[in-house]
Specification:
four-stranded antiparallel β-sheet; coiled coil; three-stranded antiparallel β-sheet; 7 strands; alpha+beta; Transposase_22; 4 helices
Length: about 250
């Protein structure tokens, strides 16, 4: 019996040792599983962070693309604006010797051999007292009735190309002095310089929005819109010498 008990004790001791080893292994395994679980969570978090970073880069890339597109569009607008200004400048230069006659009734020139002869002899010489005005070309042009002369809305304006540039100034000055309340061929006519649509629009805006206010400003002696390019208001202050200029500022 003693031998049997000794053997049984040895077996129990061995089992305790194995159980202790098993518990230790399970503890280590649980630690490993916890680390794996933590690592898995960390990987998921890292993957989520990577996805968010990718989305951020996409947004940033889209923003950069939009900025580049806006800059390119702005550059193109600047190029287009610069080109339009050059075209407008060429247009105004080509009209440097031109005047436009508004309100002259249709057919008034029918008794002369040409419109040019009619203007030189009947209008400029006899009616306005201007000699030696030579007209190279003259013709009527179509116009939107909304923009036609209020005095003769059905009459097409006559565009006149003069041989000499100084004659343009003579005609405009004489027109201001002789044509008001002085009908020509039963028409109350008006003569202006020939400029681009943009300049005409700016002059109209100056006349509507600024000329009256400038005339009424304290210390301003007089103000007027000259026949010049670009469109501007010239004014004289009482206590200053010379004329000052006011122009519309463009952004």
């Amino acid at each position: 019996m003693p031998d049997t008990e000794a053997k049984l004790d040895a077996v129990l001791a061995k089992m305790d040792e194995l159980l202790a080893a098993k518990d230790e292994q399970e503890s280590k395994l649980n630690a490993i599983l916890m680390k794996l679980e933590s690592l898995e969570k960390s990987q998921k978090k890292t993957a989520q962070d990577v996805d968010e970073l990718k989305d951020s880069y996409k947004l940033l890339d889209h923003g950069v693309t939009e900025v580049k597109s806006a800059l390119a569009e702005k550059a193109n607008r600047k190029e287009i604006d610069a080109l339009n200004k050059k075209i407008e400048d060429l247009e105004n230069r080509s009209k440097r010797n031109n005047v436009v006659i508004w309100g002259l009734k249709e057919g008034a020139e029918k008794d002369c051999s040409s419109v040019e002869e009619f203007l030189e002899e009947e209008l400029f010489s006899k009616h306005m007292g201007l000699d030696n005005i030579e007209v190279m070309r003259a013709h009527r042009t179509k116009i939107n009735q909304a923009a036609a002369s209020a005095t003769a809305p059905q009459s097409r304006p006559i565009h006149v190309y003069l041989l000499r540039y100084p004659d343009k100034g003579r005609i405009l000055k004489a027109a201001a002095n002789t044509l008001k309340d002085n009908p020509f061929c039963d028409s109350q006519i008006f003569i202006s310089d020939d400029v681009s649509k943009s300049v005409r629009s700016e002059r109209a805006k100056l006349r509507k929005d600024h000329l009256k206010q400038l005339k009424e400003r304290e210390g301003v002696q007089f103000a007027f819109i000259p026949w010049s390019v670009p469109a501007q208001i010239l004014y004289k202050e009482i206590d200053s010498e010379g004329l000052k200029s006011f122009k519309i500022r463009h952004k």
